[in-house]
TrEMBL record, chains A, B, C, D:
Mn(2+) binds at residues 170, 200. The record marks 110 as: Increases basicity of active site Tyr. Keywords: Cobalt, Glycosidase, Hydrolase, Iron, Manganese, Metal-binding, NAD, Nickel. Substrate binds at residues 94, 148. It comes from Virgibacillus phasianinus. This is 6-phospho-beta-glucosidase. The keyword NAD applies. InterPro entries: GlycHydrolase_4_CS, Glyco_hydro_4, Glyco_hydro_4_C, Lactate_DH/Glyco_Ohase_4_C, NAD(P)-bd_dom_sf. Gene3D superfamilies: Lactate dehydrogenase/glycoside hydrolase, family 4, C-terminal (3.90.110.10), NAD(P)-binding Rossmann-like Domain (3.40.50.720). Binds 1 NAD(+) per subunit.
Length: 441, 441, 441, 441
């Protein structure tokens, strides 16, 4: 029996991680075929990754048929799982998403604020096309989306493509679980966190260790010891004792952008002035990673990959595919339709939620009404996400503008226009939907 | 480490089943102490059951300390689980719940219609007192309620007692899963059903066998082969092909009361005229059961118990206690707070729902909006249940009257008064809350 | 400036009332043109009514250009208001709606139960076609629908036609206000009632006389004096003291079908056996009315019209048109989109609600959550109405079946099929949408 | 028949306006008694105002019995209307509300941001005490609250006092209607605006002139002519064309704080550095006003009062009292319980909404779901208001902190603590509820 995984954006420097994840789970998730897909511009990287992946499979002695191609439609034939990890416009585009807002005194970040909005604008049309292809060519396949902004992209696909087998994943809940285990000095597999909210805006509400509620222990440690909780790729300013005690929640690192805006901005502007954008730093990192990857002796995922910040992203994806395949009914934190799990949010909203993973998809576990302290900002973020999705589809200038002005990191009616015009100009090549009906006179 | 189970209504003829269930699971659920509790009037039966249970434990060679008592508060000391299976007023009260409505041309049934309402009126105050005791004496204990009407009683406890560790169970979902397995000729453990609705008003929405959707197969078989789906204790008229195809849902046997009212009534009236009420039939059954139980040779649950209709009720309860104890995170169908799992119903409503069973309680799995075909009647039944609970607490005559008149099996403004007055009179001894502010002049 | 009213179903015996209403309001609602429209089968009656209407206008010395035609599209040119009062299939169809259910032991009534469902099935497609024409020919015109079941029909038009200027009216709230005034011995214009619910399922929640709350006074009188509250065309069995006191609401006469089902059925079956259906009684009434109308001396609405039961229907419609025209901002009870006025019901549901009447349509006044006692049955009725509308549009047999079985006056899975098959057969000519995909094999 | 109005905060410089409003409406709102109430600290001003008011009543030749007192309970005897216009801590407190945030780089404003939060903290306990007195002494009296933050204060009273006859008013909707009339060059009484949102966060959704929709005309004028729309007391930076066109809504002047934060802050900081706080400016204004008021020749409201910014506030209050008294059923924009009028917001939330004014209170007109563009921020503001109310009642430090950090004008976890500690210290005398359980260690 065949089991085929297609990796869209196969030339990504993260691919070795997903290959490793598949190899490691081969007993329960017996993949027989992997196809790496990329676009013309990524051809060279695809070759490098493809060859490394081949060496990894060989070393592991797994009977997996691994290949790579630029022909996406061909690759999708008979696929069972399609994972997506693309970056429309590459790091050059990310550099603009970071630089332009920063240069006007706004947060410039890959998945939040103006940068995140434009990443969504560029990505959604491309992935909608993919979803349409999947629906036609391999309608039973699951799309596992880890392209950022993962929650927004997943909601856009579920709302605007006919393909409904789409799940979004992120490494943030995974990281929070692991950091919490570290703080408590227990094994990650013994820790369970009740998450509420959305991708990159998720909170931990309860922490259980082997079924015992240890939420207060974790909060106390965080409040008093100022522990590091951030992944490699974003700032870590820590949280004040008062904030932790008053909210009674585990914040995720991205919340710093919203509740420490000024401090983060100061730090980011300084870093930008000293080292350029994070995109530029990553570019160097990537270059050295690919130098490593080229080494024909290398036949496993190199340690250096973890410093990229996206570590464990593909591990999360592999776990998910494994449970879908095996109808495992274990609990994982994924991005899927709300359907009432958070009654304060619309039923048709993608949330990041603990879900039972079955062969027929994730079934979100009801988490009850949101805590009063954060329900307002969570609802607003969701409403903002809807505006981003609408503008991504319509390409309407006013729609894009309202998404900008209603983002808490912008929230400036004149600044929104400045950023919007400059970013539309900068990303012009990747925003076909904005070409007509775009810029207001 | 001690693990103590207290069985309220320990003199019930069902108790051997729960004892058997505990013995069978002793490896994973190592109960060290069982106390059977009953009231003065049930003393004799308690002795018989107690002795049988002792013989069962001995035969099984488990180190369980089993005892019985009339002192409930003493029994609750250090309890971990408290199961409730009581019948306020005994079978004599049930006989009235059945006879009085039937004699006026209304459905007379133990848990539905006027009879079910009065069972709730009698039961809720008694179990509220128990819940208060539990909260004071053993606040960490779970109450596993399988006293009917199980959903209404559970909602009443969760809304009106301080004790929030209360879960209701019923054997109907269990039976539906087993019948479905039989129909499909597969093992019950390979069948999963997505349930929606409330206790005794639950529908099956999807049937999965080893993760494959086989809903249509089951519906087709039910529509064409007219299979028996009912437990021993209620009528089985079967469902018409059109009803099954048009709703696309698995109905439960109790739905016959609502969608085949006239036919059921005809059959029940005839049975009543020929054999008296179901209560009287059960009384005979019980008498012969206790005759068996007395036999000092008997040291296991006798086969005859299954014909009582409540078969597997306690099996369901034991499974649940086992998973709570072990933080199993498996999925069971229980009665617990909605919290958005069915967004059409209030958050603070008890529903019967597939839930992940953790050490810290059941976490309902979101099932999305109700199907359009049944959302109206489900919502109405829930609103009716709220009226029953309110009247159970207030003892207000008008509250009781509105519960009667808004029940679809009564729905008669003059008949409601006749039934209400006659039932209040008949059950007078068990309805202290109605003594003042009761009967309208 | 022209002001044109088109009356669809102009040959109706009710038309003189609407003509009288327009004449009476001519100072503030200066209609310049009235066109009566009917179909070929109603040609003769249209002539009679047309001539009577002409004589009425002449007597009143109003400069209104009145004409009649079978050409609907022509008539709609430049229309400002389009009123609809049609009966698809005529009284012969109504006779079947009444007779067939009664002959199987179910309520047989024009606008409730199986009869009401089939009236909706016949009417909705015809009025959707009208609404489409209006939208194309005179898009600024208001459709004032008083074709029954008025609430369901209005919801169907608002949901399934592009024309959104549709308002439903009924005389029941008007009658309740007048009866209440009579009971209290005050002027109707001094009485205000807060209504909640839907057409033919509306309750009065509060009664104010000149701003003073007199709800209790009215309820007490109703409870103790057993006053007559019904219009001419439906039964009047009165309400029991207990029902009135326990609900604390003013029921409308149609509620008798739901809360006195057995008694109403007995009475209706008896009346049916003695005098045939209500349709046949009405047929005789109509014949004598038209005999009166033919009299060339008659130049005003004859008193006899009021005994038809629909009295004041057109008065309500004229009041509404007057306020729409004048942007009056007075309060009238109409059938319009909920939009949150009753938060328990869907936003996109037509309710019967006190509304501020402005030039741009009715603005429903928020009435807050439904009373606990009736929220269940009201929600269920609304869910049932949605099923009726769906089946009216799809013509799907299973959709029609679920509407039948979920109606509280049927609620019988086998009976539903019997009634459905017989009524589909009987009304075959008027149900084009059921011709394909109709009857299940 | 007596009709008594009690003015709490009668020594306010605004009082002459309300006196004038009562005199002007005396034919339809025949007030027979007015009592001005103030506290010891305001005794001198109360005398001045009292004497001026007496001269005004005499000049108008109305038989109104006018007096003033420091004995609030005595004054409330037999009151029909109680208006509240108090400033706990006086302008000195306001000065701190403005200065402290500004000095840390945050918006410092009377009713928004940190200043508004502390005004709520000081005001709510005082007005709750008043509401309790009213409920006891004159339970049928309406409280007309125009003490800011009017929406939050009104919600606090309706949620936490037994007195439910409380309505909040503000001059912003009045001003927006008048400015719109000016822009369109029509009479204010011909203009109607559909408002959505909350006090000081209200938007105009539709503008009707004599029933015709002129929303686009108004938006176009605002977008192209940059008209002044602000009251005297807050900044006016105008709105960009893009913002107006993209939202399609009439913003109110306070929205500048949220969508032009940086620009407003720059301007306010500059003004603060040049002229001190707005409180200090107002202090001078007040001093000159009272100088005028002392003049025994003055017997009418002086023109100069209008420059205070609160102009028309009391006109709005008088209109409302007049309609309540007369059961007018006209439409006014007031702060009252939502009850579903905006289905996106909780039923138990005070909103600023067009309502039908009846003798038994305002009945909000349903305005349907919020526009997608602003629903997020409106919901968030409402959730924030709930946090403010909770902290006002509990006096809990963490509650106060979360209200600060969740306010979009603060949204800074470290800044929130700085502001909170400094403001708690500064207002210590007026925050008895924070004395225990206050400051975190």
């Amino acid at each position: 029996m065949s089991l085929k995984v297609v990796i869209i954006g196969g030339g990504s420097s993260y691919t070795p991680e997903i290959i490793e994840g598949i190899i490691r789970r081969h007993d329960t998730f017996p993949v027989s075929e992997i196809v790496l897909v990329d676009i013309e511009a990524g051809k060279e990287k695809l070759e490098i990754i493809g060859n490394l992946a081949l060496r990894m499979v060989e070393k592991a002695k797994k009977s997996i048929n691994l290949s790579w191609t630029l022909d996406r439609k061909e690759a999708l034939q008979h696929a069972d799982f399609v994972s997506t990890q693309i970056r429309v416009g590459g790091l050059a585009a990310r550099e603009k998403d970071e630089r332009i807002p920063l240069s006007h005194g706004f947060i410039g970040q890959e998945t939040n604020g103006a940068g995140g909005i434009f990443k969504a604008f560029r990505t959604i049309p491309v992935l909608l096309e993919l979803a349409n292809d999947v629906h036609e060519i391999c309608p039973d396949a699951w799309i596992i989306n880890f392209t950022n902004p993962a929650g927004i992209v997943t909601e856009a696909l579920l709302k605007h493509s006919p393909h409904q087998k789409v799940i979004g994943v992120c490494n943030i809940p995974f990281n929070m679980r692991h950091s919490t285990a570290e703080i408590l000095n227990v094994r990650p597999e013994d820790v369970k966190i009740e998450f509420i909210g959305m991708n990159h805006f998720v909170f931990g509400k309860k922490v259980y260790v082997n079924g015992e509620d240890q939420t207060q222990e974790v909060l106390t440690k965080l409040a008093n010891e100022g522990l590091d909780y951030s992944p490699a790729n974003i700032v870590n300013l820590g949280w004040s004792k008062t904030f932790i005690e008053a909210t009674g929640l585990l914040s995720n690192p991205y919340h710093q952008y919203y509740f420490q805006t000024k401090d983060v901005l100061d730090k980011d502007v300084k870093a930008f002035e000293e080292n350029g954008t994070r995109a530029e730093v990553v570019q160097q990192l990537e270059t050295s990673l690919f130098d490593l990857y080229k080494n024909p002796e290398l036949n496993e995922k190199p340690k250096e990959l973890e410093s990229r910040g996206g570590a464990f992203y593909s591990d999360v994806a592999c776990s998910l595919m494994n449970s879908l395949y095996n109808d495992s009914e274990d609990i994982q934190t994924v991005n899927t339709m709300n359907n009432g799990a958070i009654p304060d949010l619309p039923d048709h909203a993608v949330i990041e939620v603990n879900s039972v993973i079955t062969k027929h998809g994730p079934r979100p576990i009801s988490s009850g009404p949101l805590p009063d302290t954060v329900k307002g900002i969570i609802y607003q973020m969701k409403a903002f996400e809807e505006l981003v999705i609408r503008a991504s589809i319509t390409g309407n200038y006013h729609d894009a503008y309202t998404a900008m002005v209603m983002n808490p990191l912008i929230a400036d009616e004149r600044g929104s226009k400045v950023l919007l015009d400059e970013l539309l100009e900068a990303h012009n090549n990747y925003l076909p939907q904005f070409n007509t009906g775009g810029k207001a006179e």
